[in-house]
Structures are given as C-alpha cells and as structure tokens.
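User: ok so my PI wants both of these folded by tonight, can you help

Assistant: No problem, let's get them done. Here's the first:
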Amino acid sequence: MKKITVGVDVGGTNIKLGLVDPQGNILARSRLNTKSYILDKKKLIAAMSQAIAQLLKSFGLNASVVKGIGVGLPGLVDPLRGVVIFLPNIPGWKNVSLKSYLEKDLGIPAFLENDVNMITLGEWKFGAGKGAADMVGMTLGTGVGAGLILNGALYRGPGFAAGELGHIPLN
C-alpha cells in the first residue's frame, strides 16, 4: 500500500525535500544546493531526481510505497499539464515539463504547484487552517505571496493557464 508522499520545495538557493506520512509527519529530510545547478535546468532536474531517490534509499524505501511527489515552485506553474511556466529566480525555466521528467526518472506520479499555494494547502490540511472552510495563507521572503482556500477548495483567479483552472476542490 502506498503511504508516503515526497515533498519538494524548490527555491533559488536550496531545494528542500522531505518524506511525509499521511498524517503530515515529516519522516526524513534532505537539502540540495540549487546554486550548484542553477545554470543548467537538465542538471538541476537530474540532481532533484537523484536526491529524491537517495532520500528514499536512505530511509529503506522504494518507489512502490510512494503515493506521489508534490513539488512547490516559486513562480508560475500549470498544474494540469505539469509545466513550469516561469520561475523568476532561476534562469532558463520557461515552459519546462518538470512533471514528465520526474515521472520518467522515478516512476512516481508528480504534482506541481506554486509554492505559496502548496504552503496554504499544507496549513489547511494539517496546520493552522485545519477544519476551516476558508483561509488565506501568506508568505514573506524574497517575494510576497498568498494562497486562498474558499469553501474547501484552492482558489485560482480567472485566466490562469488560459482559463483551464479555477476553483480546485481538495477532497
């Protein structure tokens, strides 16, 4: 039975990885220096895949116990197509099919989303917003961002990814 989820937070300085159980407990963590690969997206994707595989191996796990990989990225993402549209802090990341690369390399389903939306989802499911029908998640770092849960669903404004996405239910 697949029980573990791999969480990946892609940042301009570091990529943070974790293995998470169904209750939201972090079982293991690792980190990858983004700057070492920042000029070559293929090397960065390969390093990310290797870091995920190594994290699983170091915990004595293989892909068969992984439900999926969730990747949060600091920019515009099309979750339906699994494409990074644009990352402002990592050069060369325009229209990158990260989902397909990860799934091909690791044989594990992958899901991409904006990092602030991912943080908001995590807080809604396991943290400060647990049980709320509506909530706002905000971040302040290199940039400022916000995610919005309305009526138990992640809200995406009109026009995102050519109108493909709107109100995404979280069940």
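One down. Here's the second:
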Amino acid sequence: ISVRTILCESSELPKAMDAGQIDLAYGYFSDLNEASFHQQVILEHDALCMARRDHPDISDSVTLDQYRAATHVVFNPGNRVGDIITTALREQRIERKIALAMSHSVYMPYIVSQTDLIATLPRPTALQATKLYPLRLFETPFTAPRMQLKQVWHKRFDKSPRLKWFRRLVAKLAKEAARY
C-alpha cells in the first residue's frame, strides 16, 4: 500500500471523493452527510487552551477576561477544527485578538512555547504537545464544542481490502494516540 496525504478544501472534498481522487478522508466532517459516504468516529473530544509554561499573564488557569485580552495563534484556513472553535466562540460572542493565523496546527505548540501567544487546540493535540514543549494547558473559559474526529470513505470502496486494512490502521493509531 502507498499512502499520500493532501490538504483539500472542505467544499471540494465530496467532489474529489466522488471522482476517486481521494480514497479516505480523516478529520472533522460535521457537514459531510451525503448518502454516498460512510463515516466512522475515531475520537470524540473537546478543546484545551495552551500557553507557554512561564507566560507572564497566565499561570494556573485562564479566565474569560484573560482569554479575550491575550493574543492568539489560530489555524483555520480550510480546517474544520478551526471553524468549529471559531463558530463556538462566535455563538458565545467571544472575540479573540488574532496575531497569527496558520494553515496547519503542527507548529502551533512550538510557537506558543516560544512566545506570549496562546492557542485553543483539540484536546488530543494539546496533550501530545506537552510532551515536546514547555507548555501549560487550561480548560477553556468558554463552553468548548464537542468534536468528532472521523474517517470518511466513499461507499464504492467499502469492500476494498486495502482500504479496509488502512481504515483499521488509522482507527487503531488514533485510539492509541488518544490514550496519551
């Protein structure tokens, strides 16, 4: 089996999967409910806030006032997690001061660990980041949305042996990662 990962715009994903350009999608797909797709929930979780361990303004927890006053690093272009968190904040009338917007979250924990920026990330991502960087995690000072990490595939690949194998592998790896 050969695996190649790509980023796909949310609006283009159903068309790319219908055309056979994408075999398996892995992410947050609350809006992908077409009958031609199967979905499997891998993890369900909420979000956490993170700041560097020696942040000058945040120590044991983050209040809503501190959250609003802080400068944030966010990710959201083409990313449903960013959209889910942004939507929850908008619904609760909470505005953030965004200093840096990124197209991917992989470097966010490093940036947070080296600056006074704070971030709101999925709980599993935040927990893993503390193993690599000097970070402090906090419960969100707002009602964090529940997020479902899913894998999605087209029904025509449902019986494909290679895709079945890969779906099982993805589910196993995600559940292992969630334990930590």
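The first helix runs from residue 13 to 18. Helices lie at 13-18, 64-69, 80-91, 108-114, 123-129, 161-179. Good luck tonight!
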